[in-house]
Protein backbone atom coordinates (compact mmCIF):
# COMPACT_ATOMS: atom_id res chain seq x y z
CA UNK A 1 0.00 0.00 0.00
CA UNK A 2 2.82 2.38 0.94
CA UNK A 3 4.59 1.66 -2.34
CA UNK A 4 1.45 2.54 -4.30
CA UNK A 5 1.19 5.85 -2.42
CA UNK A 6 4.83 6.63 -3.23
CA UNK A 7 4.31 5.87 -6.92
CA UNK A 8 1.18 8.03 -6.99
CA UNK A 9 3.04 10.93 -5.38
CA UNK A 10 5.91 10.53 -7.85
CA UNK A 11 3.46 10.54 -10.73
CA UNK A 12 1.73 13.71 -9.47
CA UNK A 13 5.11 15.32 -8.93
CA UNK A 14 6.15 14.51 -12.53
CA UNK A 15 3.10 16.39 -13.83
CA UNK A 16 4.27 19.60 -12.14
CA UNK A 17 8.06 19.39 -12.25
CA UNK A 18 10.54 17.97 -14.76
CA UNK A 19 11.61 14.77 -13.04
CA UNK A 20 14.28 12.17 -13.79
CA UNK A 21 13.48 8.60 -14.78
CA UNK A 22 12.55 6.46 -11.76
CA UNK A 23 14.03 2.95 -11.60
CA UNK A 24 13.24 0.01 -9.31
CA UNK A 25 16.15 -2.44 -9.83
CA UNK A 26 14.87 -4.76 -7.08
CA UNK A 27 11.61 -5.32 -8.99
CA UNK A 28 12.79 -5.40 -12.60
CA UNK A 29 15.59 -7.56 -13.97
CA UNK A 30 16.39 -4.96 -16.63
CA UNK A 31 15.14 -1.42 -17.34
CA UNK A 32 15.59 0.58 -20.51
CA UNK A 33 17.06 4.03 -19.95
CA UNK A 34 14.99 6.74 -21.67
CA UNK A 35 14.82 10.53 -22.13
CA UNK A 36 18.35 11.34 -23.20
CA UNK A 37 19.50 14.94 -23.70
CA UNK A 38 22.03 15.44 -26.50
CA UNK A 39 24.74 18.17 -26.58
CA UNK A 40 26.70 18.90 -29.75
CA UNK A 41 29.86 20.18 -28.07
CA UNK A 42 32.51 18.79 -25.72
CA UNK A 43 32.58 19.81 -22.04
CA UNK A 44 33.24 17.68 -18.95
CA UNK A 45 30.78 19.87 -17.03
CA UNK A 46 27.98 17.95 -18.73
CA UNK A 47 28.82 14.89 -16.61
CA UNK A 48 28.47 16.82 -13.32
CA UNK A 49 25.49 16.09 -11.07
CA UNK A 50 23.11 19.03 -10.81
CA UNK A 51 24.45 20.74 -13.95
CA UNK A 52 21.45 22.44 -15.55
CA UNK A 53 22.43 23.69 -18.99
CA UNK A 54 19.63 23.42 -21.59
CA UNK A 55 20.36 20.69 -24.10
CA UNK A 56 20.47 21.37 -27.81
CA UNK A 57 18.17 18.43 -28.33
CA UNK A 58 16.22 15.88 -26.31
CA UNK A 59 15.69 12.32 -27.53
CA UNK A 60 12.70 10.49 -26.09
CA UNK A 61 14.04 7.04 -26.91
CA UNK A 62 17.51 5.55 -27.10
CA UNK A 63 18.06 6.72 -30.65
CA UNK A 64 21.57 8.10 -30.77
CA UNK A 65 21.55 10.15 -33.94
CA UNK A 66 24.26 11.69 -36.00
CA UNK A 67 24.53 15.41 -35.43
CA UNK A 68 23.05 17.56 -38.17
CA UNK A 69 25.98 19.96 -37.95
CA UNK A 70 29.72 19.51 -38.09
CA UNK A 71 30.46 21.94 -35.25
CA UNK A 72 32.12 19.29 -33.08
CA UNK A 73 33.59 15.87 -33.60
CA UNK A 74 32.46 14.91 -30.08
CA UNK A 75 29.01 15.10 -28.52
CA UNK A 76 27.35 14.00 -25.26
CA UNK A 77 24.24 12.14 -24.10
CA UNK A 78 22.98 12.80 -20.59
CA UNK A 79 20.06 11.63 -18.46
CA UNK A 80 18.93 11.86 -14.83
CA UNK A 81 18.01 8.66 -12.95
CA UNK A 82 16.37 8.30 -9.52
CA UNK A 83 16.35 5.26 -7.21
CA UNK A 84 13.40 5.73 -4.80
CA UNK A 85 14.30 2.65 -2.69
CA UNK A 86 17.46 0.90 -1.46
CA UNK A 87 19.15 -1.44 -3.89
CA UNK A 88 18.34 -4.49 -1.74
CA UNK A 89 21.49 -6.37 -2.73
CA UNK A 90 25.24 -6.20 -2.29
CA UNK A 91 25.76 -7.25 -5.88
CA UNK A 92 25.65 -3.79 -7.44
CA UNK A 93 24.23 -2.68 -10.78
CA UNK A 94 25.31 -3.16 -14.39
CA UNK A 95 24.81 -0.84 -17.36
CA UNK A 96 24.50 -2.70 -20.68
CA UNK A 97 25.41 -0.87 -23.92
CA UNK A 98 24.92 -3.17 -26.93
CA UNK A 99 26.32 -0.83 -29.58
CA UNK A 100 27.32 2.77 -30.20
CA UNK A 101 29.26 3.57 -33.33
CA UNK A 102 32.87 4.74 -32.85
CA UNK A 103 34.41 5.12 -29.38
CA UNK A 104 32.85 6.49 -26.19
CA UNK A 105 33.38 7.15 -22.46
CA UNK A 106 30.71 6.60 -19.81
CA UNK A 107 30.35 8.73 -16.66
CA UNK A 108 28.31 8.11 -13.52
CA UNK A 109 27.86 11.10 -11.20
CA UNK A 110 30.83 12.90 -12.81
CA UNK A 111 33.03 9.80 -12.34
CA UNK A 112 34.50 7.96 -15.32
CA UNK A 113 33.43 4.31 -14.99
CA UNK A 114 34.33 2.92 -18.41
CA UNK A 115 35.98 3.51 -21.77
CA UNK A 116 35.20 1.77 -25.03
CA UNK A 117 37.93 2.54 -27.54
CA UNK A 118 39.87 5.79 -27.53
CA UNK A 119 38.47 9.30 -27.95
CA UNK A 120 41.24 11.46 -29.34
CA UNK A 121 41.93 13.39 -32.49
CA UNK A 122 40.48 11.90 -35.62
CA UNK A 123 43.78 10.32 -36.67
CA UNK A 124 44.48 8.79 -33.25
CA UNK A 125 40.98 7.59 -32.33
CA UNK A 126 40.40 3.88 -31.87
CA UNK A 127 36.90 2.35 -32.04
CA UNK A 128 35.74 -0.01 -29.33
CA UNK A 129 33.56 -3.10 -29.41
CA UNK A 130 29.87 -3.95 -29.09
CA UNK A 131 28.21 -5.73 -26.20
CA UNK A 132 29.85 -3.84 -23.33
CA UNK A 133 28.92 -3.96 -19.63
CA UNK A 134 29.83 -1.34 -17.00
CA UNK A 135 29.64 -2.16 -13.27
CA UNK A 136 28.30 0.12 -10.51
CA UNK A 137 29.12 -0.71 -6.90
CA UNK A 138 26.37 -0.64 -4.21
CA UNK A 139 27.77 2.66 -2.87
CA UNK A 140 27.44 4.17 -6.37
CA UNK A 141 23.83 2.95 -6.53
CA UNK A 142 22.49 4.55 -3.38
CA UNK A 143 18.96 5.85 -3.01
CA UNK A 144 18.43 9.21 -4.67
CA UNK A 145 19.30 11.03 -7.88
CA UNK A 146 22.16 10.06 -10.22
CA UNK A 147 23.52 11.34 -13.52
CA UNK A 148 24.50 9.08 -16.40
CA UNK A 149 26.51 10.71 -19.22
CA UNK A 150 28.11 9.29 -22.36
CA UNK A 151 30.82 11.10 -24.30
CA UNK A 152 30.76 9.89 -27.93
CA UNK A 153 33.26 10.45 -30.73
CA UNK A 154 31.48 11.55 -33.89
CA UNK A 155 34.17 11.39 -36.61
CA UNK A 156 33.95 8.44 -38.95
CA UNK A 157 30.29 8.10 -38.02
CA UNK A 158 29.11 8.60 -41.61
CA UNK A 159 26.14 6.26 -41.37
CA UNK A 160 24.60 7.35 -38.10
CA UNK A 161 24.25 5.10 -35.05
CA UNK A 162 22.53 1.90 -34.08
CA UNK A 163 19.38 2.15 -31.98
CA UNK A 164 19.85 -0.73 -29.56
CA UNK A 165 18.54 0.27 -26.11
CA UNK A 166 20.85 0.99 -23.17
CA UNK A 167 19.62 -0.86 -20.08
CA UNK A 168 20.36 -1.04 -16.37
CA UNK A 169 19.70 -3.75 -13.78
CA UNK A 170 21.09 -5.73 -10.87
CA UNK A 171 24.29 -7.40 -12.02
CA UNK A 172 23.26 -10.97 -11.30
CA UNK A 173 19.77 -10.53 -12.73
CA UNK A 174 21.00 -8.82 -15.90
CA UNK A 175 23.62 -11.54 -16.34
CA UNK A 176 20.99 -14.27 -16.03
CA UNK A 177 18.59 -12.39 -18.31
CA UNK A 178 21.19 -11.93 -21.03
CA UNK A 179 22.41 -15.52 -20.72
CA UNK A 180 18.83 -16.76 -21.07
CA UNK A 181 18.26 -14.43 -24.02
CA UNK A 182 21.46 -15.66 -25.67
CA UNK A 183 20.51 -19.32 -25.27
CA UNK A 184 16.96 -18.73 -26.50
CA UNK A 185 18.20 -16.77 -29.52
CA UNK A 186 20.69 -19.51 -30.45
CA UNK A 187 17.99 -22.18 -30.09
CA UNK A 188 15.46 -20.26 -32.19
CA UNK A 189 18.04 -19.34 -34.83
CA UNK A 190 18.84 -23.06 -35.07
CA UNK A 191 15.16 -23.85 -35.61
CA UNK A 192 14.97 -21.29 -38.42
CA UNK A 193 18.08 -22.64 -40.14
CA UNK A 194 16.85 -26.23 -39.88
CA UNK A 195 13.50 -25.14 -41.31
CA UNK A 196 15.24 -23.41 -44.22
CA UNK A 197 17.32 -26.52 -44.95
CA UNK A 198 14.21 -28.72 -44.73
CA UNK A 199 12.41 -26.67 -47.38
CA UNK A 200 15.49 -26.61 -49.59
CA UNK A 201 15.77 -30.40 -49.24
CA UNK A 202 12.20 -31.09 -50.35
CA UNK A 203 12.29 -28.71 -53.33
CA UNK A 204 13.14 -31.58 -55.70
CA UNK A 205 10.49 -33.81 -54.14
CA UNK A 206 7.45 -31.58 -54.59
CA UNK A 207 5.73 -29.60 -57.32
CA UNK A 208 5.64 -26.17 -55.64
CA UNK A 209 9.36 -25.41 -55.89
CA UNK A 210 8.94 -21.62 -55.69
CA UNK A 211 6.88 -21.82 -52.49
CA UNK A 212 9.50 -23.85 -50.65
CA UNK A 213 12.35 -21.64 -51.89
CA UNK A 214 10.52 -18.51 -50.70
CA UNK A 215 9.79 -19.97 -47.25
CA UNK A 216 13.39 -21.17 -46.99
CA UNK A 217 14.62 -17.62 -47.66
CA UNK A 218 12.11 -16.27 -45.13
CA UNK A 219 13.40 -18.67 -42.46
CA UNK A 220 17.00 -17.76 -43.27
CA UNK A 221 16.08 -14.07 -42.95
CA UNK A 222 14.62 -14.67 -39.47
CA UNK A 223 17.67 -16.68 -38.46
CA UNK A 224 19.98 -14.01 -39.88
CA UNK A 225 18.14 -11.27 -38.00
CA UNK A 226 18.67 -13.17 -34.74
CA UNK A 227 22.30 -13.84 -35.65
CA UNK A 228 22.97 -10.12 -36.18
CA UNK A 229 21.45 -9.31 -32.78
CA UNK A 230 23.48 -12.08 -31.14
CA UNK A 231 26.70 -10.73 -32.66
CA UNK A 232 25.93 -7.16 -31.60
CA UNK A 233 24.88 -8.02 -28.04
CA UNK A 234 27.25 -10.87 -27.22
CA UNK A 235 29.92 -11.04 -29.92
CA UNK A 236 32.17 -8.14 -28.89
CA UNK A 237 32.29 -7.02 -32.53
CA UNK A 238 34.67 -4.13 -33.32
CA UNK A 239 32.64 -0.98 -33.83
CA UNK A 240 34.20 -0.58 -37.29
CA UNK A 241 32.16 -3.53 -38.57
CA UNK A 242 28.87 -2.56 -36.98
CA UNK A 243 27.89 -0.49 -40.01
CA UNK A 244 28.18 -3.60 -42.20
CA UNK A 245 26.19 -5.60 -39.66
CA UNK A 246 23.51 -2.92 -39.74
CA UNK A 247 23.25 -3.22 -43.55
CA UNK A 248 23.08 -7.01 -43.27
CA UNK A 249 20.36 -6.55 -40.66
CA UNK A 250 18.44 -4.38 -43.14
CA UNK A 251 18.55 -7.17 -45.74
CA UNK A 252 17.38 -9.77 -43.24
CA UNK A 253 14.63 -7.41 -42.06
CA UNK A 254 13.52 -6.93 -45.67
CA UNK A 255 13.24 -10.69 -46.10
CA UNK A 256 11.31 -11.07 -42.84
CA UNK A 257 8.56 -8.58 -43.65
CA UNK A 258 8.27 -9.30 -47.39
CA UNK A 259 8.62 -13.05 -47.88
CA UNK A 260 5.96 -14.38 -45.48
CA UNK A 261 2.93 -12.97 -47.40
CA UNK A 262 4.67 -13.77 -50.71
CA UNK A 263 5.13 -17.39 -49.61
CA UNK A 264 1.47 -17.74 -48.69
CA UNK A 265 0.37 -16.14 -51.97
CA UNK A 266 2.41 -18.75 -53.83
CA UNK A 267 1.57 -21.68 -51.54
CA UNK A 268 -2.19 -21.18 -51.86
CA UNK A 269 -2.05 -20.06 -55.52
CA UNK A 270 -3.91 -16.89 -54.58
CA UNK A 271 -5.64 -14.71 -57.15
CA UNK A 272 -3.42 -12.03 -58.75
CA UNK A 273 -0.43 -13.32 -56.79
CA UNK A 274 2.14 -12.00 -59.30
CA UNK A 275 0.83 -8.44 -59.09
CA UNK A 276 0.51 -8.67 -55.30
CA UNK A 277 4.07 -9.99 -55.00
CA UNK A 278 5.42 -7.10 -57.06
CA UNK A 279 3.56 -4.52 -54.95
CA UNK A 280 4.79 -6.11 -51.70
CA UNK A 281 8.41 -6.10 -52.88
CA UNK A 282 8.30 -2.46 -53.99
CA UNK A 283 6.68 -1.27 -50.74
CA UNK A 284 9.02 -3.32 -48.56
CA UNK A 285 12.19 -2.13 -50.27
CA UNK A 286 10.98 1.47 -49.92
CA UNK A 287 10.10 1.14 -46.23
CA UNK A 288 13.38 -0.59 -45.33
CA UNK A 289 15.52 1.80 -47.40
CA UNK A 290 14.14 5.04 -45.95
CA UNK A 291 15.80 4.79 -42.47
CA UNK A 292 19.11 3.91 -44.11
CA UNK A 293 18.82 7.05 -46.30
CA UNK A 294 18.22 9.10 -43.16
CA UNK A 295 21.27 7.57 -41.45
CA UNK A 296 23.38 8.59 -44.45
CA UNK A 297 21.90 12.13 -44.31
CA UNK A 298 20.26 11.73 -47.72
CA UNK A 299 17.00 12.36 -45.85
CA UNK A 300 16.87 14.64 -42.78
CA UNK A 301 18.06 12.72 -39.72
CA UNK A 302 15.16 14.10 -37.66
CA UNK A 303 12.82 11.81 -39.61
CA UNK A 304 14.55 8.69 -38.32
CA UNK A 305 12.24 7.96 -35.34
CA UNK A 306 9.19 8.28 -37.59
CA UNK A 307 10.78 5.99 -40.18
CA UNK A 308 11.53 3.36 -37.51
CA UNK A 309 7.89 3.50 -36.41
CA UNK A 310 6.89 3.15 -40.07
CA UNK A 311 8.96 -0.06 -40.29
CA UNK A 312 7.20 -1.44 -37.24
CA UNK A 313 3.79 -0.51 -38.65
CA UNK A 314 4.66 -2.15 -41.96
CA UNK A 315 5.76 -5.31 -40.14
CA UNK A 316 2.30 -5.53 -38.60
CA UNK A 317 0.74 -4.81 -41.99
CA UNK A 318 2.80 -7.64 -43.53
CA UNK A 319 1.61 -10.14 -40.93
CA UNK A 320 -2.00 -8.99 -41.30
CA UNK A 321 -1.69 -9.37 -45.08
CA UNK A 322 -0.38 -12.90 -44.61
CA UNK A 323 -3.29 -13.68 -42.30
CA UNK A 324 -5.74 -12.29 -44.88
CA UNK A 325 -4.25 -14.51 -47.60
CA UNK A 326 -4.51 -17.55 -45.33
CA UNK A 327 -8.06 -16.63 -44.35
CA UNK A 328 -9.02 -16.37 -48.03
CA UNK A 329 -7.50 -19.80 -48.65
CA UNK A 330 -9.50 -21.15 -45.71
CA UNK A 331 -12.71 -19.75 -47.21
CA UNK A 332 -11.81 -21.52 -50.46
CA UNK A 333 -11.23 -24.68 -48.40
CA UNK A 334 -7.61 -25.11 -49.43
CA UNK A 335 -5.86 -27.96 -47.65
CA UNK A 336 -3.82 -26.91 -44.62
CA UNK A 337 -5.10 -23.33 -44.61
CA UNK A 338 -6.80 -23.59 -41.21
CA UNK A 339 -3.72 -25.08 -39.58
CA UNK A 340 -1.48 -22.33 -40.98
CA UNK A 341 -4.07 -19.71 -39.92
CA UNK A 342 -3.73 -20.84 -36.30
CA UNK A 343 0.06 -20.53 -36.58
CA UNK A 344 -0.28 -17.05 -38.10
CA UNK A 345 -2.45 -15.87 -35.20
CA UNK A 346 0.12 -17.18 -32.71
CA UNK A 347 2.87 -15.40 -34.68
CA UNK A 348 0.91 -12.12 -34.54
CA UNK A 349 0.46 -12.55 -30.78
CA UNK A 350 4.23 -13.04 -30.40
CA UNK A 351 4.88 -9.87 -32.40
CA UNK A 352 2.49 -7.92 -30.17
CA UNK A 353 4.22 -9.29 -27.06
CA UNK A 354 7.60 -8.14 -28.42
CA UNK A 355 6.51 -4.61 -29.29
CA UNK A 356 4.03 -3.93 -26.48
CA UNK A 357 5.79 -5.63 -23.56
CA UNK A 358 9.43 -5.37 -24.74
CA UNK A 359 9.94 -9.14 -24.61
CA UNK A 360 12.67 -9.45 -27.21
CA UNK A 361 12.13 -13.05 -28.39
CA UNK A 362 8.33 -12.97 -28.33
CA UNK A 363 8.09 -12.69 -32.14
CA UNK A 364 10.64 -15.47 -32.70
CA UNK A 365 8.82 -17.85 -30.36
CA UNK A 366 5.61 -17.06 -32.23
CA UNK A 367 7.36 -17.75 -35.50
CA UNK A 368 8.69 -21.05 -34.15
CA UNK A 369 5.07 -22.10 -33.55
CA UNK A 370 4.19 -20.94 -37.07
CA UNK A 371 7.02 -23.11 -38.37
CA UNK A 372 5.58 -26.11 -36.56
CA UNK A 373 2.10 -25.58 -38.01
CA UNK A 374 3.42 -25.04 -41.54
CA UNK A 375 5.62 -28.12 -41.26
CA UNK A 376 2.63 -30.18 -40.09
CA UNK A 377 0.64 -28.95 -43.10
CA UNK A 378 3.42 -29.75 -45.54
CA UNK A 379 4.00 -33.17 -43.97
CA UNK A 380 0.32 -33.99 -44.41
CA UNK A 381 0.36 -32.82 -48.03
CA UNK A 382 3.56 -34.73 -48.70
CA UNK A 383 2.07 -37.88 -47.20
CA UNK A 384 -1.07 -37.48 -49.31
CA UNK A 385 1.00 -36.99 -52.44
CA UNK A 386 3.00 -40.13 -51.73
CA UNK A 387 -0.20 -42.10 -51.22
CA UNK A 388 -1.56 -40.82 -54.52
CA UNK A 389 1.75 -41.67 -56.16
CA UNK A 390 1.72 -45.27 -54.95
CA UNK A 391 -1.92 -45.67 -55.94
CA UNK A 392 -1.18 -44.29 -59.40
CA UNK A 393 1.86 -46.53 -59.69
CA UNK A 394 -0.19 -49.58 -58.78
CA UNK A 395 -2.92 -48.67 -61.26
CA UNK A 396 -0.34 -48.01 -63.96
CA UNK A 397 1.32 -51.37 -63.31
CA UNK A 398 -2.00 -53.20 -63.61
CA UNK A 399 -2.96 -51.35 -66.78
CA UNK A 400 0.51 -51.85 -68.21
CA UNK A 401 0.10 -55.58 -67.64
CA UNK A 402 -3.24 -55.46 -69.43
CA UNK A 403 -1.63 -53.76 -72.40
CA UNK A 404 1.24 -56.20 -72.50
CA UNK A 405 -1.20 -59.06 -72.33
CA UNK A 406 -3.09 -57.44 -75.20
CA UNK A 407 0.10 -57.37 -77.25
CA UNK A 408 0.88 -60.95 -76.39
CA UNK A 409 -2.61 -62.28 -76.95
CA UNK A 410 -2.73 -65.33 -79.22
CA UNK A 411 -4.82 -63.59 -81.87
CA UNK A 412 -2.20 -60.84 -82.17
CA UNK A 413 0.57 -63.35 -82.70
CA UNK A 414 -1.71 -65.53 -84.81
CA UNK A 415 -2.62 -62.65 -87.12
CA UNK A 416 1.03 -61.67 -87.36
CA UNK A 417 2.06 -65.27 -88.15
CA UNK A 418 -0.71 -65.56 -90.71
CA UNK A 419 0.57 -62.39 -92.36
CA UNK A 420 4.09 -63.81 -92.30
CA UNK A 421 2.95 -67.08 -93.89
CA UNK A 422 1.05 -65.23 -96.60
CA UNK A 423 4.03 -63.02 -97.40
CA UNK A 424 6.37 -66.03 -97.42
CA UNK A 425 4.33 -67.55 -100.23
CA UNK A 426 4.07 -64.30 -102.18
CA UNK A 427 7.01 -62.10 -101.16
CA UNK A 428 9.64 -63.81 -98.92
CA UNK A 429 11.56 -60.55 -98.54
CA UNK A 430 8.49 -58.80 -97.13
CA UNK A 431 7.91 -61.70 -94.75
CA UNK A 432 11.48 -61.38 -93.50
CA UNK A 433 11.02 -57.66 -92.86
CA UNK A 434 7.79 -58.36 -90.98
CA UNK A 435 9.48 -60.95 -88.75
CA UNK A 436 12.32 -58.52 -88.07
CA UNK A 437 10.00 -55.59 -87.28
CA UNK A 438 7.75 -57.72 -85.07
CA UNK A 439 10.70 -59.05 -83.08
CA UNK A 440 12.05 -55.51 -82.62
CA UNK A 441 8.70 -54.28 -81.31
CA UNK A 442 8.35 -57.17 -78.89
CA UNK A 443 11.91 -56.68 -77.59
CA UNK A 444 11.30 -52.95 -77.00
CA UNK A 445 7.97 -53.61 -75.30
CA UNK A 446 9.61 -56.05 -72.90
CA UNK A 447 12.65 -53.77 -72.33
CA UNK A 448 10.63 -50.67 -71.48
CA UNK A 449 7.90 -52.42 -69.47
CA UNK A 450 9.60 -51.84 -66.10
CA UNK A 451 10.79 -48.25 -66.71
CA UNK A 452 9.13 -45.18 -65.18
CA UNK A 453 10.27 -42.97 -68.05
CA UNK A 454 12.15 -43.26 -71.31
CA UNK A 455 13.59 -40.79 -73.79
CA UNK A 456 11.15 -39.32 -76.30
CA UNK A 457 13.39 -40.50 -79.16
CA UNK A 458 13.05 -44.11 -77.94
CA UNK A 459 9.27 -43.79 -77.80
CA UNK A 460 9.20 -42.37 -81.35
CA UNK A 461 11.39 -45.23 -82.63
CA UNK A 462 9.05 -47.80 -81.05
CA UNK A 463 6.02 -46.07 -82.63
CA UNK A 464 7.59 -46.18 -86.08
CA UNK A 465 8.42 -49.87 -85.75
CA UNK A 466 4.80 -50.52 -84.74
CA UNK A 467 3.56 -48.62 -87.79
CA UNK A 468 5.91 -50.67 -89.96
CA UNK A 469 4.41 -53.89 -88.53
CA UNK A 470 0.87 -52.63 -89.10
CA UNK A 471 1.69 -51.52 -92.65
CA UNK A 472 2.72 -55.03 -93.58
CA UNK A 473 -0.04 -56.75 -91.63
CA UNK A 474 -2.90 -54.60 -92.94
CA UNK A 475 -1.30 -53.74 -96.29
CA UNK A 476 -1.76 -50.03 -95.62
CA UNK A 477 0.50 -47.00 -95.57
CA UNK A 478 0.97 -45.45 -92.10
CA UNK A 479 3.65 -42.79 -91.54
CA UNK A 480 4.76 -40.72 -88.54
CA UNK A 481 6.12 -37.17 -88.94
CA UNK A 482 7.84 -35.45 -86.01
CA UNK A 483 8.21 -31.70 -85.62
CA UNK A 484 10.04 -29.86 -82.84
CA UNK A 485 12.68 -30.71 -80.27
CA UNK A 486 12.98 -34.25 -78.93
CA UNK A 487 16.41 -34.50 -77.28
CA UNK A 488 16.62 -34.37 -73.49
CA UNK A 489 12.89 -35.01 -73.04
CA UNK A 490 11.76 -37.99 -70.95
CA UNK A 491 8.19 -39.29 -70.88
CA UNK A 492 6.38 -42.34 -69.45
CA UNK A 493 6.77 -45.37 -71.78
CA UNK A 494 4.07 -46.39 -74.26
CA UNK A 495 1.87 -43.26 -74.01
CA UNK A 496 2.45 -42.16 -77.64
CA UNK A 497 2.52 -45.82 -78.69
CA UNK A 498 -0.90 -46.27 -77.07
CA UNK A 499 -2.30 -43.16 -78.81
CA UNK A 500 -1.13 -44.47 -82.20
CA UNK A 501 -2.66 -47.88 -81.48
CA UNK A 502 -5.96 -46.22 -80.61
CA UNK A 503 -5.76 -44.10 -83.75
CA UNK A 504 -5.23 -47.14 -85.99
CA UNK A 505 -7.99 -49.14 -84.27
CA UNK A 506 -10.66 -46.41 -84.41
CA UNK A 507 -9.79 -44.12 -87.31
CA UNK A 508 -8.51 -46.20 -90.23
CA UNK A 509 -10.95 -49.03 -90.69
CA UNK A 510 -12.08 -47.57 -94.02
CA UNK A 511 -8.93 -45.72 -95.03
CA UNK A 512 -5.74 -47.10 -96.56
CA UNK A 513 -3.40 -44.18 -95.86
CA UNK A 514 -2.73 -42.79 -92.40
CA UNK A 515 -0.60 -39.80 -91.46
CA UNK A 516 0.38 -39.26 -87.82
CA UNK A 517 2.03 -35.91 -86.97
CA UNK A 518 3.75 -35.36 -83.62
CA UNK A 519 4.49 -31.72 -82.75
CA UNK A 520 6.67 -30.99 -79.69
CA UNK A 521 6.68 -27.49 -78.16
CA UNK A 522 9.06 -26.75 -75.28
CA UNK A 523 9.57 -23.70 -73.07
CA UNK A 524 11.20 -23.01 -69.72
CA UNK A 525 8.27 -24.44 -67.74
CA UNK A 526 6.33 -26.98 -69.82
CA UNK A 527 6.59 -29.50 -72.65
CA UNK A 528 3.55 -29.95 -74.90
CA UNK A 529 3.20 -32.93 -77.27
CA UNK A 530 0.39 -32.83 -79.84
CA UNK A 531 -0.33 -36.00 -81.87
CA UNK A 532 -2.64 -35.57 -84.86
CA UNK A 533 -3.90 -38.20 -87.32
CA UNK A 534 -6.10 -37.90 -90.39
CA UNK A 535 -8.38 -40.82 -89.45
CA UNK A 536 -12.16 -40.98 -89.63
CA UNK A 537 -13.16 -38.96 -86.55
CA UNK A 538 -16.89 -39.71 -86.96
CA UNK A 539 -16.36 -43.36 -86.12
CA UNK A 540 -14.19 -42.52 -83.12
CA UNK A 541 -16.52 -39.81 -81.76
CA UNK A 542 -19.35 -42.31 -81.72
CA UNK A 543 -17.31 -44.74 -79.61
CA UNK A 544 -16.69 -42.15 -76.87
CA UNK A 545 -13.38 -41.10 -75.29
CA UNK A 546 -11.71 -41.52 -71.90
CA UNK A 547 -13.07 -44.90 -70.79
CA UNK A 548 -10.82 -47.32 -72.68
CA UNK A 549 -7.87 -49.17 -71.21
CA UNK A 550 -5.42 -47.16 -73.32
CA UNK A 551 -6.70 -43.77 -72.14
CA UNK A 552 -6.78 -44.91 -68.50
CA UNK A 553 -3.22 -46.18 -68.87
CA UNK A 554 -2.00 -42.82 -70.21
CA UNK A 555 -3.61 -40.86 -67.37
CA UNK A 556 -2.25 -43.23 -64.73
CA UNK A 557 1.26 -43.06 -66.17
CA UNK A 558 1.17 -39.25 -66.21
CA UNK A 559 -0.20 -39.06 -62.68
CA UNK A 560 2.49 -41.45 -61.48
CA UNK A 561 5.25 -39.05 -62.60
CA UNK A 562 3.62 -35.62 -62.29
CA UNK A 563 0.76 -35.94 -59.78
CA UNK A 564 -1.85 -33.38 -60.80
CA UNK A 565 0.68 -31.18 -62.56
CA UNK A 566 -0.13 -32.33 -66.11
CA UNK A 567 -2.93 -32.11 -68.68
CA UNK A 568 -4.23 -34.62 -71.24
CA UNK A 569 -6.98 -34.06 -73.78
CA UNK A 570 -8.19 -35.91 -76.87
CA UNK A 571 -10.79 -34.66 -79.33
CA UNK A 572 -11.87 -34.67 -82.96
CA UNK A 573 -10.81 -32.04 -85.46
CA UNK A 574 -12.06 -31.04 -88.89
CA UNK A 575 -9.58 -33.36 -90.59
CA UNK A 576 -9.04 -36.12 -88.05
CA UNK A 577 -8.22 -36.63 -84.38
CA UNK A 578 -5.88 -34.78 -82.03
CA UNK A 579 -4.46 -35.70 -78.63
CA UNK A 580 -2.47 -33.24 -76.50
CA UNK A 581 -0.26 -33.93 -73.48
CA UNK A 582 1.34 -31.15 -71.41
CA UNK A 583 3.92 -32.00 -68.73
CA UNK A 584 6.16 -29.77 -66.54
CA UNK A 585 9.74 -29.26 -67.63
CA UNK A 586 12.04 -31.53 -65.59
CA UNK A 587 9.64 -32.05 -62.62
CA UNK A 588 8.69 -35.51 -61.41
CA UNK A 589 7.38 -36.83 -58.12
Straight-line N-to-C gap: 69 Å
Largest sheet: 7 strands, mixed
| Class from secondary-structure proportions | alpha+beta
- Average pLDDT figure: 80
- Low-pLDDT windows of residues: 1-18, 60-71, 157-162
The count of β-strands is 18
Total domain modules: 3
Total DSSP helices: 14
In what range is the share of β-strand residues? 15-25%
Q: What can you tell me about this protein's structure?
A:
Strands 1, 3, 4, 5, 7, 8 and 10 form a seven-stranded mixed beta sheet that branches. The protein has three domains: 16-165, Galactose-binding domain-like (Jelly Rolls, Sandwich); 173-377; 409-584, 2-Layer Sandwich (Heat Shock Protein 90), CATH 3.30.565. The chain is rod-shaped. It is built from 14 helices and 18 strands. It is of the alpha+beta class and 589 residues long. 52% of the residues lie in helices and 17% in strands.
Give the helices and strands, then pairings.
Layout: H1 2-16, E1 21-22, E2 31-32, E3 36-39, E4 57-59, E5 74-83, E6 93-97, E7 104-108, E8 111-116, E9 132-136, E10 144-153, E11 167-170, H2 171-201, H3 209-234, H4 242-267, H5 273-295, H6 304-331, H7 337-357, H8 362-408, H9 410-426, H10 428-448, E12 454-455, H11 456-474, E13 477-484, E14 490-491, H12 495-507, E15 513-522, E16 526-533, H13 537-543, H14 549-562, E17 567-573, E18 576-584
Parallel strand pairs: 1-5, 13-15
Antiparallel strand pairs: 2-11, 3-4, 3-5, 5-10, 6-9, 6-11, 7-8, 7-10, 12-14, 15-16, 16-18, 17-18
Helix pairs in contact: 2-3, 2-8, 3-4, 4-5, 4-6, 5-6, 6-7, 7-8, 8-14, 9-10, 10-11, 11-12, 12-14
Amino acid sequence: MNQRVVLLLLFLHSLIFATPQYLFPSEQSETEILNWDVFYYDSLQIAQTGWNRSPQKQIKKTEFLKTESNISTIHWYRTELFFPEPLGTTDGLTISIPALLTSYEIYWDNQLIGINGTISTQSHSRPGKSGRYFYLSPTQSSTGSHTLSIRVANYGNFSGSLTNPITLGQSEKIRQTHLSRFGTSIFLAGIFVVTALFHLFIIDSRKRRHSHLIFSLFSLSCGGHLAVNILIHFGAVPQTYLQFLAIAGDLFWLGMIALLPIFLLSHFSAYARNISTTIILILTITVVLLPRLALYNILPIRYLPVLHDLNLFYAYLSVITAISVTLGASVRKRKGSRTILIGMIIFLAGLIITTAFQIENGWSVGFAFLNVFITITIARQFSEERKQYYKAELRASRLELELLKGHMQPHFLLNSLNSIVAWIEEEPAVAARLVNALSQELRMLMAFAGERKINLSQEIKMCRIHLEVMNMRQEKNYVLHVQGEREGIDIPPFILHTLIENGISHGFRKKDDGIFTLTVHRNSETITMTLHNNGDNKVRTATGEGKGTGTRYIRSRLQELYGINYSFSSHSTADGWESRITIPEGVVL
